[in-house]
Amino acid sequence: MAENKVTLSKKDRMSVAWRHQFLQGSWNYERMQNGGWCYSIIPAIKKLYPNKDDQIAALKRHMEFYNTHPYVSAPVMGVTLALEEDRANGAPVDDAAIQGVKVGMMGPLAGVGDPAFWFTLRPLLGALGASLAMEGNIVGPILFFVLWNLIRMAFIWYTQEFGYKLGTSITKDLSGGLMGKITEGASILGMFVIGGLVQRWVSISFAPVVSRVEQSDGAFIDWTAIADTAGQGGQGVADAIHSALSQYASLGSTGLEQIKVTTLQANLDSLIPGLAAVCVTLLCCWLLKKKVSPIVIIIGMFAVGIVGHLVGLL
Amino acid sequence: MSVFAIVLIVIVAFFAGMEGILDEFQFHQPLVACTLIGLVTGHLEAGIILGGTLQMMALGWANIGAAVAPDAALASVASAILMVIALNGGADQGEAITTAIAVAVPLSVAGLFLTMIVRTLAIPVVHAQDAAAAKGNFAAIEAWQIAAICMQGIRIAIPAAALCFIPDKAVMGALNMMPAWLNEGMTIGGGMVAAVGYAMVINMMATNEVWPFFALGFCVAAISELTLIALGVIGISLALIYLGLKEAAKAGAGAAGSGDPLGDILDDYE
């Protein structure tokens, strides 16, 4: 047996990595990603086990419960491939060892994958693409799609190779604090970016007027004088526009009217721009912690929007 | 809509449905799905704008473990189709997009129930895979996996096809019936909805240690000159600096022992 050592070629590993993208296809409430996992590893089983009974045993052991983040599943697959290869070459690797490695890795890895991909990378790339797209720019969706898939494919291929090369020693590497650091780093970046996104993209604006102040002469544009100049026609109109624009430039937007109107929103913004947005977000955090369904909160927000608008608050 | 356009829409919907579960290529994200539907129906610009706006709302929607978030696939596909019908009926682009966004939210809930049904239907599928495994039948396992993926695709493709046959008169009638206050109120509500997604993300990641970074991000973002890329760079730098300092502090504490540099100097001073 030793002289005929079977190894998985690069082509075999690529085939597994390609299939691994369809991991979640048969996601079910019973054993979650088990069908997809078994589907992914088929090329390796075909290569490693020529004997029909061995093939059946291998297929059965890969139909066990499995669930993790679909991308960080790649290093788990890498390690599993290394283990299966050892087993096919006669090493004493039993079913329990293989299942143990899968279950042992899937939990901590999902803990890294969720914050890194779903909560940091996707909001970041999504917001980048969406901010361009909202102006009708086709670059937005293309940028999102291309960058995301480049990063994703590079990640699943190289981490699978990493797992395959290291074999079981990867578990030591992962428990050596590296995982914790990646999770923490991703959380820091994620929280920072989310903070920024809340400020930029949660829009809430209070309409009620807090004060009306009659401004003194010179603090606002004297529109009657402008009208007089414009009444002369021709050059007068140009002079009037020039005069109005230069006054506006020096007075700012409060110079447009004699009465200065301050809304509640303007007051809030002078404390910190986006204060209302952050309050709404924190309120949502609290409601979600109280086990209120996100769907209920979303519907509630529409209701608040409609009622608030009708009573003139928003 | 032409038969050709409807066929293309159904194909886009099928991909979006598949990706709703696979979560790999991201065809189910509004930014991609709405753009594609806009492209195949000749309303590219409106599709991109709708996609961008919905994407902002859906940024934090993610399937974690067995939990399912509001479904982005049905929301983006169905709202984009309704927008296209309204545009074909002669509606104003802005109005069509606003209405599409308003209907997207109830649709995301409907999609959620559909995906739960399909995930339950997948249980017999894996039992069939079990049976195939017991016989060592590779082809059958593969066929069932592909069937399960197609089932997720059909989940979106069928509602999409059905929506395509709603006459534009009906959509326009509903649009015209909608009073201005309802439309404006829903736009205001829509502006707040993004907060729910962000809150879901925050609840997953927040520890006492990382809250200050949220505050920093919030305050720094008020500087409108900073692009999102700049914010990302600042965030990465902060994370690296923080982790580096933490490491250094741990190493320093181990070496010096007392963890009180001033105390050490005083002790050494003779």
From TrEMBL, chain A:
The chain crosses the membrane at residues 270-288, 295-313. PROSITE patterns: PTS_EIID (PS51108). The keyword Transmembrane helix applies. The keyword Membrane applies. Pfam families: EIID-AGA (PF03613). It comes from the Bacteria. Keywords: Membrane, Transmembrane, Transmembrane helix. This is PTS system mannose/fructose/sorbose family transporter subunit IID. It comes from Thermophilibacter provencensis.
UniProtKB/TrEMBL annotation, chain B:
It is found in: Cell membrane. The chain crosses the membrane at residues 30-52, 64-85, 97-118, 181-201, 213-243. Keywords: Cell membrane, Membrane, Phosphotransferase system, Sugar transport, Transmembrane, Transmembrane helix, Transport. It comes from the Bacteria. InterPro entries: GatZ_KbaZ_carbometab, PTS_IIC_man. Signal peptide: none annotated. It holds the Pfam family EII-Sor. This is PTS mannose/fructose/sorbose transporter subunit IIC.
